[in-house]
């Protein structure tokens, strides 16, 4: 399976999400063109080789020009969103230590699984409606609104295809036996579901001078930032899992404790929207195999320095920054500014 770590919580094969959230994601890939042009023939086959995929995933990748690039989009999207959502946390979603983190069942691991599958779902559905894939196109639900939209050349995001494809791609049918496998699958599904719940109907008016004589509506995904924000809230409220019940039919349910608002320590099944975890997280204050620690992190004195610096205190540094000021319009359309200087204070966590 090439360089890098390959864990197996899902099936016999390496799991794609581990690649997706692993360090190789950003570094091993050359930049691709803006779209996978079918005229380029077999170029996408090479892109599939560069991704660390299981045999089945590689086959799916090779069959679908445009998929490799979409996978790459998803990797980038999930990393950017994770780092944005955790910019003020001790664990800042840096790629350092991620392989170790993925071996454990922390809350942070849960977030990584969810944000990765959400980004995949999102990117795939968008790639379909943007015409970047050969095997899918606009949302083709048979309802009337949707058919009208097609007539006007409006293309809804194809979440139905992306969800179906993804479940096959990730091989979720082979439910793993151990608790961690179940937890990972649950969190992956939370990601997919969050994207699904964000699907909105958007409408547009047609007709003489916007009279709205004809209205077309189609399904549109929320901006991925909204999904990221919701997943971060789920992270803050994640449920710790103790065991899984196993019915005779092989159907199983995770058992956790109920939220604070209920009586504590009551066993309960987590909701399908809850992120779940099994291991308590380390503090992430000091360098460890999971993170670089928080030394040197810049923080906001009012908001985050106390928690981010773990009581070690912070350094204060000031520097002069220049910016444009006293801007005035000269003639039409020409703006002249002066350069002003201002002192800016930067706080950063001590060693
Ligand atoms: C995360 O924190 C580490 C340790 O201070 C720092 O080196 C790194 O640049 C940060 N990464 C991001 C994405 O903010």
UniProtKB/TrEMBL annotation:
It is found in: Secreted, Extracellular space, Extracellular matrix. Residues 253-272 are annotated as: Disordered. One of its GO terms (cellular component) is extracellular space. Pfam families: wnt. One of its GO terms (biological process) is negative regulation of stem cell population maintenance. InterPro entries: Wnt (IPR005817), Wnt_C (IPR043158), Wnt_CS (IPR018161). It comes from the Eukaryota. GO terms for molecular function: co-receptor binding; cytokine activity; frizzled binding. Keywords: Developmental protein, Disulfide bond, Extracellular matrix, Glycoprotein, Lipoprotein, Secreted, Signal, Wnt signaling pathway. Its main location: secreted. Signal peptide: none annotated. Ligand for members of the frizzled family of seven transmembrane receptors. Belongs to the Wnt family. This is Protein Wnt. It comes from Chelonoidis abingdonii. The lineage of its organism: Eukaryota, Metazoa, Chordata, Craniata, Vertebrata. The gene is WNT9B.
């Amino acid at each position: 399976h090439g360089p890098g770590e390959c864990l197996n919580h899902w099936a016999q094969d390496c799991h794609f999400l581990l690649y997706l959230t692993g360090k190789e994601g950003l570094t091993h890939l050359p930049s691709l063109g803006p779209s996978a042009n079918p005229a380029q023939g077999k170029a996408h086959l090479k892109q599939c080789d560069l991704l660390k995929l299981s045999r089945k995933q590689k086959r799916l990748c090779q069959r679908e020009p445009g998929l490799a690039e979409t996978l790459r989009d998803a990797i980038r999207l999930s990393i950017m969103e994770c780092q944005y959502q955790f910019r003020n946390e001790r664990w800042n979603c840096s790629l350092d230590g991620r392989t170790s983190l993925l071996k454990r069942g922390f809350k942070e691991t849960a977030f990584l699984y969810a944000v990765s599958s959400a980004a995949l779902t999102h990117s795939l559905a968008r790639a379909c409606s943007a015409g970047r894939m050969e095997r899918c196109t606009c949302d083709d639900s048979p309802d009337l609104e949707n058919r009208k939209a097609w007539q006007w050349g409006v293309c809804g995001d194809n979440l139905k295809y992306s969800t179906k494809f993804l479940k096959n791609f990730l091989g979720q049918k082979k439910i793993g036996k151990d608790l961690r496998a179940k937890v990972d699958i649950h969190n992956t599904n939370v990601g997919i579901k969050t994207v699904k719940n964000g699907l909105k109907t958007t409408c547009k008016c047609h007709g003489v001078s916007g009279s709205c004589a004809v209205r077309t509506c189609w399904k549109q995904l929320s901006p991925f930032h909204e999904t990221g924000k919701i997943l971060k809230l789920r992270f803050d409220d994640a449920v710790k899992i103790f065991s899984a019940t196993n019915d005779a039919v092989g159907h199983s349910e995770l058992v956790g404790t109920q939220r604070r608002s209920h009586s504590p320590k009551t066993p309960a099944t987590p909701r399908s929207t809850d992120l779940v975890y099994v291991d308590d997280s380390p503090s992430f204050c000091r360098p460890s195999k999971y993170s670089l620690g928080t030394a040197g992190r810049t923080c906001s004195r009012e908001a985050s320095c106390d928690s981010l610096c773990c009581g070690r205190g912070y350094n204060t540094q000031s520097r002069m920054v220049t910016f444009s000021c006293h801007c005035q319009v000269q003639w039409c359309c020409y703006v002249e500014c002066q350069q002003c200087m201002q002192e800016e204070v930067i706080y950063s966590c001590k060693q």
